[in-house]
Amino acid sequence: MSRALLVLHVLAAIIAIGPVTVAASMFPPAVRKATQESAAEAPSATTAQLLHRICRRYATLGLAVPVLGMATAAVMGVLGSAWLITSMVLTAAAAGILVALVVPRQEAQRTTAAVALAVIPGIGGMLALRSLPTPQARARTAPQMP
Description:
By secondary structure, the protein is mostly helical. 82% of the residues lie in helices and 0% in strands. The protein is elongated. Keywords: Membrane, Transmembrane, Transmembrane helix.
């Protein structure tokens, strides 16, 4: 059971978090390019709208990642581990940044926000990478699977 939950958790992270990070990183240049184009050339505006839609939809899908992670941790009996608590705090911080800063600024689609917005996905990506446990932490806290 724990292996199945772990596989689902990792797949959900790859499928949901990756596209959000890429789309959020690509959004500011698309907005800058759209503001420089004439009305006749609208591909960049369409691209920016598509990237915003990807961020919103995949962020919703990304809710499965912590849910599956908590279920996996409960089955494995590691809910009180320091690396797991740190991971949950960093995941909550990354989700807060996405919901409070990235998506609202994308909706505004201002060029001034696009410059500041270019830095935010990188911070979220660093938080996501930092939340991964080290092999030493996994070996100390994870029980052996049969």
